[in-house]
Design brief:
Blueprint: H1 8-21, H2 25-60, H3 64-114, H4 119-124, H5 127-169, H6 171-218, H7 220-225, H8 229-282, H9 296-318, H10 320-337, E1 349-355, E2 361-363, E3 371-376, E4 382-386, E5 391-401, E6 404-414, E7 419-424, H11 430-437, E8 445-450, E9 453-454, H12 460-465, E10 467-470, E11 479-480, H13 481-486, H14 494-504, H15 507-511, E12 520-521, H16 530-544, E13 548-552, H17 560-574, E14 578-582, E15 594-599, E16 602-607, H18 609-615, H19 618-623
Parallel strand pairs: 7-14, 7-15, 10-13, 13-14
Antiparallel strand pairs: 1-2, 1-3, 3-4, 5-6, 5-8, 8-9, 11-12, 15-16
Helix pairs in contact: 1-10, 2-3, 2-5, 2-9, 3-5, 3-10, 5-6, 5-9, 5-10, 6-8, 6-9, 6-10, 8-9, 14-16
Length: about 625
Amino acid sequence: MNKENVSPAVLKRLFKMLFGFFPVLMPVTVACIVFSAVCSCLPAIFNQKIFAVVEQCYLAGDWAGAKAQILPLILKLAFMYFLSLCSVAVYNQLMAYITQGFLDRIRRTMFDGMQNLPVRFFDQNKHGDIMSRYTNDTDAVRELISRAMPQLINSAVIVAVVFGIMLYYSLWMTILIVFGAAVMMLVSKKFGGGSAKYFMRQQISTGKAEGFIQEMMNGSKVIKVFCHEEQAKDGFRETNEALFRDSFKAHAYANILAPVIMNIGNLLYVLTATVGGLLLLTDIKNVSISGMAFGISILVPFMNMTKQFTGNINNVSQQINAVVMAMAGAQRIFSLMDEEPEPDEGYVTLVNAEVADDGTITESEKYTGKWAWKHPHGDGTLSYTRLMGDVTLNEVDFSYVEGKEVLHNISVYAKPGQKVAFVGATGAGKTTITNLINRFYDIADGKIRYDGININKIKKSDLRRSLGVVLQETNLFTGTVLDNIRYGNLDATDEECVKAAELAGADGFITRLPDGYKTVLTNNGSNLSQGQRQLISIARAAVANPPVMILDEATSSIDTRTEAIVQRGMDKLMEGRTVFVIAHRLSTVRNSDVIMVLDHGSIIERGDHKALIEKRGVYYDLYTGAFELE
């Protein structure tokens, strides 16, 4: 989101969610804030009454009766202050709970929604910028809810109540103060509008800066290897200077606003005293709701109310920045929450199956080791298809960007238990094919069928659960080695995880770790070698025990000696499974049932190793090292 103008509808949506999450606590909190604000306006009324008593006793020369009249007024005021203190204590505690509870729900909503986003979203957005929405943007919203909103409500109520009291006592003085307040609001709009624009830019610049930092941290080794430190510094300096400029301009406007408004309030205070004195000297008839004559008992409280009135207008102007930042942050949060989830129109699901001797398939509530596709029909009947691992791609076309075709007329026929290998130059489309089988992306034309079922009809979660994937880039999570292996099957026992590690050839190095399988891995397993991380990734796929395996350069980070160990485990892992292999070492695909050579998104050769060697075509040249695909 790079918009500098944020719609007020964002604020409306924010508060709608706030009251929706806390339908009881929010009204109670607002009521406490309003009550406290009203109580803070009462001294003006009590002051007027006390000064009226003093003035009356002074003129009558009867000071004895003053004490009897003033003491009850003071006690009443003290009691109101006590109630106000109680309401402040209540709403402060409630606001602390509401604020943190709201942020908790917002973060959970963002994260839950993010899990349903397509892979394309993460390809197109910097991860640091996404993270900024969980930190900086939610913090801006926190500032609005916990501090700005209560102060805005409090100040608005005080301004409204004080205005009513002033109008009750004197119309002339009220007009004067309203005129001064109008000037203050015009100044607030002028400076507040400038700061609003740059505060919005600041939020965007912060996200870009965090995205850049995150990218540089991930690539720290590459930066050092290629001595790119100075260029990285220059890039950060440019990003950081943009953040500095936006932040400086935002706070420059904001810092000017407070003293200007405060001094206008001081001038208005002096003007109130001057005009009030002239009204007393000239004996101009007072116009008011109360019908009281203008006197000292009205002028003195009026001067206090002027301070209170202008002070709260100043408070409102000071919260403009918090409101603007929260609106900018909320829009970035909502833009993430409103991202279209990955479409999934599938209705065929994967279930545990019981297979009778006559081939009849029934659904089982218990794990049986056998799986079937559960296919509901429009007439309410169900049919079951045994999960075999028969994968077919028929004349498939695909483009990441419209108009730029990546795959053209791809046809692949992988029968259950077959090993299909893809070879070709980087960018030829090998990994893209496997991404289409996973439905990380959807095809533009053609058909992909899984056990005879169009994969568009299979629920994506069930489709992916039936596929085991070992990616070229490993991702290990913070936790024990055992936890990382179990990631492939959360129901797997410790023994099954160990067996999977033995199958992948990972058991040897794992047992030599300080705590064996209970060794805690952090920072993507930075305390392991690249090959060791890949072995754990292979074990993770093994414990899932899927009927179809996708091995995307699975042994690319493993040395030749380790590869021989892994290959034996992989051969056992692949037994009875349909396997798609992408390999940079052609020696690893020799025993494949079918080898497909890709070039610029098209299959240019296909056949087993022997047939392709005899053909003496592109594969032969690749295998003998006489040629490389460009």
